[in-house]
Each structure stands twice: as structure tokens, then as C-alpha cells.
Amino acid sequence: MLRSAHDVVIYNSTIDPYSPTEEYYECRGCGTRFTDDSAVACANCGSDDVRNISVPRE
Fold it and tell me: Where are the transmembrane segments (predicted)?
């Protein structure tokens, strides 16, 4: 019987309860990491190849 969300197990792994409080992005061009409300381009190199790395991890 499960007692809380922290007891949920998928494929014999406990789910990481990480929950971001702000958006955190990484530029795939230069590797710079930064926070922003909505990133469309890297402020360091201008590349538009940025990804949101503040997603829940499982």
C-alpha cells in the first residue's frame, strides 16, 4: 500500500521529488546556464538553441 507520492516506484526506481521554482536554461552552443521567464536565445552567444533543464527528473 502506498502512503505518499514519495513511495511511488516505477521500474524499481523511486521518483525524484524535485520541483523547480524558476525556469533554468542551458545554451547548447556555448554551455552557459541561466534563469529566465522564457528564453528564446542565449544572452552570452546569441544562439537560439537553448533548452529548459528545470524539468522534473525521473
Answer: none
